[in-house]
Amino acid sequence: MGGGVGGRRFGVFAECLLTGVWVVVAAVPLVTVPAAVAAGAAHLRRHLAHEAGGWREFVADWRAAARRGWLVGVAGWGAVALLWADLVVVRAGGLPGGAVVGVVGVLVMFAVVVAGVRAAVGWRPGASWRGLLAAAGRGTVRDPAGSLVLVCGVAVVGVSGWFAVPLAAPAVGVLVAAGVVVEGRGRG
Questions:
Q1: Are 15 and 42 a contacting pair, CB within 8 Å?
Q2: Per-residue confidence at 131, pLDDT binned at 50, 70, 90?
Q3: What angle do CA 11, 14, 15 make, to 5 degrees?
Q4: Alpha-carbon torsion 67, 56, 135, 152, what sign?
Q5: What is the dihedral of CA 48, 51, 54, 57, to 10 degrees?
Q6: SS3 113
Q7: Do the beta carbons of residue 102 and residue 91 sit within 8 Å?
Q8: What is the DSSP letter of 30?
Q9: Residues 34, 130 contacting (CB under 8 angstroms)
Q10: Cα 175 to Cα 35: distance, rounded to the nearest angstrom
C-alpha cells in the first residue's frame, strides 16, 4: 500500500492527524494557538511538496510564528471572550432585539475563528501578522465557500471533542489541512 495512490492519500491523512496532535501540544499555552496553527500549516505544505520536515522544523516554525503571534492569540481570545459575554447577556433575556443580536454574535464569532485560521495558515517566516489578519478578513468575506469549509472543520473538531476528547487533537490537523487547501485554492 505504500506506493499506490491509496497509500499516498492515506499517508497525507495520517500526516494531518499527526500534525493535529503537534498543533494541540504547541497550543497548550492558549495564546500560542495562531503560532501552532501556522507551524502545522507550514509542516503540511512541506509534506505535500515532498520536502523533508519533521518535529524540529515544526518547532522552529512555531518559535518564529510565536514571536509576534502570541499577541494575535491574546487579541483573538479577547475577541472570543467579548463575543461569548455578549451571547451570555443575550441568553439571560431582557435585551431588546436579543434574538437578532444573538444570531449576529454567533456569526461574528464564526467569522473571527475563520479569519484567525486563515491568517495562521497564510503565515510564512517574516510575514506581518497585521497584514495576514487583514488579508484573512477580506478572504473570509470574499470566499464564502472557503469560509464554510473552515466552519465545517471547526464543527468537526467540536463534534470530535464532544464525542471523545482525545479525538479533537487529530481533528485539529484536519482543520489545518482544510485551511491549507482553502488557502491554496484562493492563491490558485
A1: no
A2: very high
A3: 85
A4: negative
A5: -110
A6: helix
A7: yes
A8: S
A9: no
A10: 15
pTM > 0.85:
yes
**Cβ neighbours of residue 1 closer than 8 Å, sequence gap 6 or more:** 7, 10
Q: Which three cell numbers stand for residue 7?
A: 497509500
Give the amino acid at 15.
E
Residue 90 has a pLDDT of 86
In 143-164, which ranges are continuous DSSP H helix? 144-163
**Residue from 79, 86, 42, 85 nearest 64 by CA:** 42
| Nine cell digits for residue 90 | 443575550
The predicted-structure confidence for 28-66, as pLDDT tens digits, reads as follows 999 999 999 999 999 999 999 999 889 999 999 999 999
Locate 176 and state its grid cell.
489545518
CA distance 81 to 83: 5
